[in-house]
Amino acid sequence: QDTLVRVENIKKYFPIKGGILKHTIGHVKAVDDVSLAIKKGETLGVVGESGSGKSTLGRMIIRLLAPTEGKIYFDNQDITNLSNEKLRNYRRDMQIVFQDPFASLNSKMSVGQLIEEPLLIQTNLSKVERKEKAISMLEKVGLRADDRAKYPHEFSGGQRQRISIARALAISPKFVIGDEPVSALDVSIQAQVLNLMADLQDELNLTYLFIAHDLSVVKHISDRVAVMYLGRIAEIAPKEAIYDNPLHPYTQALLSSVPITDIDHKREKIILKGDLPSPSDPPSGCAFRTRCPMAHDRCKVDRPELLEKKNGHFVACHLYDR
Ligand code: SF4
Ligand code: MG
């Protein structure tokens, strides 16, 4: 299977300014050396707490943010240092659906205008063709043709997210990032929107990076899952391996707090001590050691590498790297 997206050793360090002269006094290491690849048609789920770097990673992959270091490839082209001008050719292929459709949809534009705007900017479609496309996208996402004339505030949160999805997919992207696209929605609506995104993926041949803070959200939609902690990947594996045989103590703790629906998978709840340390001052050695129930002497000094344990199951933890 072909790779669509590949990042190599990417980092994003945000400077922290301080003092009267606003010198740089440190850095927030939002993403600290991440490498991964996403195959065409695949969904990679990325899970982590806020501050884990998952959104920053997503924004770098589609070059909304420039990386501090590292390489980004899209469809085998190095896009790391492309100018905005050159990036325009790729913008059509990469879209992002944000968490809050209220904030991301311009309230002064009608639904028709919202969906047609990217078509106007990015394609040569005529006015009639743009209108037809908007109608067909509305129908694809479960809304109606005459919703074109309405405004975002006339819709529920779930419907607004459907509008965001119609807008993102209208220009036929290859790659779509969902940046917590269902986190702001009622739990009862979340599954509907997730199912819609999964159906559209199959229908439109999309590749997804799906960001969430909770392992339960990405369970059904993902083929593989990456768990991030303080800017690094703690574990990445095919979905079944993550949910049935998590190796990293952090993944185990996250999973133990996911509501159990399956009686065979009864887990003891693991309570993590303490809060997420500051990404500007991460612990030495393993960044997770201040909260890890399995931490030992070596964890204080050696940073664990992300190593393949078996068949595409990678983990960064000294319990496995002897
Ligand atoms: Fe815990 Fe040590 Fe493994 Fe880090 S390397 S997750 S501190 S056991
Ligand atoms: Mg799929």
Automatic annotation (TrEMBL):
GO molecular function: ATP binding; ATP hydrolysis activity
Domain ABC transporter: 5-255
Keyword annotations of the record: ATP-binding, Nucleotide-binding, Transport
Pfam family, one: oligo_HPY
GO biological process, one term: peptide transport
Superkingdom classification of source: Bacteria
Protein name: Dipeptide ABC transporter ATP-binding protein
Protein species of origin: Natronobacillus azotifigens
